[in-house]
Amino acid sequence: MRTKIILPDRSPLFSFVSVSGGLELLLAPGLPIVLTDYVAWEATRSGSQTAHLIRAWIDGNPDIISVIETELGQARIAREKAGIALKKDRKNIGEVTIFEALASGDVGEGPFLFLFEEDKFVDPGFYGRYPVHSLTTLGFLVGLERGGRIGDADAVFADMRSNGRSGTKGIIVDRPYRPSRDAEYSLGSEVRPGALPLDPAGA
User: At what angle do helices 153-162 and 137-146 cross, to 10 degrees?
Assistant: First the structure.
C-alpha cells in the first residue's frame, strides 16, 4: 500500500505556490496527492494569478493528483456560486469533505499523510479511526532537505513567509501515526520527514 498525501484544506497549497517552483515540491516524494472538490474550489475560486497557478498544477498532473467529488462539497460550491452561502459557514468544510471521502471509500485505503498548517490537526483524536501521519509544511520541507531534494528547508520556508504567508507557523510537527483499529493500515517510521519517500515506488 502506498501512502497518500492528503490536503485537508487550501493552506498548504497557498504556501507552496507562493515560492517559485513550490507546487512541484509537493510532487517530489512521488506519492499520490488527494484533495476534495471543495478544497480545490477554495484554492481556485478567486480567479487570481495564484488560483490559476494552482488550477494548472492540478490539471497538469492527473496521474498523481486526485480531486474527489463529495456530496457536501458539491452542495456548498453550488450555494457559493449562487451567492446564497454565508461566509461564516465555510469553516472546516474542506476537512469535513475529506472525511466524507474517506468514509465513502473514494480515497481508497490508507495509510494517509495529512499535510497541514492548522493546530487542530496535531491532535490525533481529530482523525477518528483513520490511520494517519500528520506533518506540517515546515516538516515536509525538512524531509525534502534531508532527502536531497532541496538545499535549505529554512530558506524555502522563509521565502513562503515573506511572500504573503507570514501567518504560517514555523513549527515542525512530525506526528507518527495514530494507532488504528485496522492495524494492517497503520503507518510506520518510513514516512518520517527524515525518510520521506522520494521514489514513486516508495511507501
Answer: 150
Mean pLDDT for the stretch of residues 37-62? 96
Segment 187-191 mean pLDDT:
39
Q: What is the C-alpha separation between 111 and 40, in angstroms, rounded?
A: 22
Average pLDDT, the chain: 82
Q: What is the mean pLDDT of residues 10-19?
A: 96
Task: Return the beta strands (E) in 12-128 as ranges.
Answer: 33-36, 65-68, 112-116
Count of residues for the chain?
203
Is the sign of the CA dihedral 54, 37, 153, 147 positive or negative? Answer: negative
Per 3-state DSSP, the chain is made up of helix, strand and coil in percentages (nearest 5) of 50, 10, 40
Would you call 43 helix, strand, or coil by DSSP? helix
User: What are the C-alpha distances in Å from 90 to residues 38, 41, 68, 71?
Assistant: 10, 12, 18, 15
Q: What is the mean pLDDT of residues 153-182?
A: 80
Model confidence over 134-143: pLDDT tens digits? Answer: 888 999 999 9
Residues contacting residue 30 through CB under 8 Å, at least 6 positions apart? 64, 197, 198, 199, 200, 201, 202
